[in-house]
Amino acid sequence: KHYVCGLCAAFTNIVVTFPIQKMLFRQQLYGLRARDAVCQLYRDGLHTLYRGILPPLLQKATSQALMFGLYEDFSALLLGHARAPELLTRSAAAVLAGTTEAVLTPFERVQTLLQDYKHHDRFTNTYQAFRVLKAYGLREYYRGLVPILLRNGPSNMLFFGLRGPIKQCLPEATSSSSHVVSDFICGGLLGAVLSFLFFPVNVVKTRMQAQIGGEFQSFSKVLAKIWLERDRKVIHLFRGAHLNCYRSMLSWGISNTTYEFLLKLL
Length: 266
Hints:
Keywords: Membrane, Mitochondrion, Mitochondrion inner membrane, Repeat, Transmembrane, Transmembrane helix, Transport
GO biological process, one term: mitochondrial NAD transmembrane transport
CATH class: Mainly Alpha
Family: Belongs to the mitochondrial carrier (TC 2.A.29) family.
CATH architecture: Alpha/alpha barrel
Shape: globular
């Protein structure tokens, strides 16, 4: 049940927020201002707006299904066998679920290539991108794995650890509509905060995954390169972070609300 609810929540979320995500991607990769990123998408044309949506649909739907489902399964398993405090046990379950999600890195990899306008002439669809990467070996599919691991585990731990306490701080929900609002606020708030905290990690991931072939540079080396390119200013590493917070607020608000709604329904 948790897997199905997570999958449906992700599907709804991706369809609604994909255009915003695409604009953020351009900002992360090229350090553009929001207006410049919008202009770039406008020049690309409406026919390319949803170009690259298949990988995130496949990746995010599966990823969130695993995120919610495995968290519940790992929690039940660890709580039944471990003697550690519940908080520690559930934190470990969240990290394990996030680490398992990293198996889906190839979908994020292909999504990055399809959203980068520099590769528009080279790739026309998801299948073609996968075929091109195949020539470089299995490792090429997992370029950018380290930042994904650094992001998934800790963010899952914070999401599942804080979701309950935040909801308890909100006014008590007495109707179905108030439950929806409460779930949206809870998910949206967490999504915004976590997206901001891990934004520089995603910037590094995007830069890594935009490359095809060549040296596999370390996380620290790519971060140092971006740091120099952006005038050694922390604020420049967060270019696009404000819009990403809004997108994540909407995205995780939708995901959390849909998940909780379906969980009660099924």
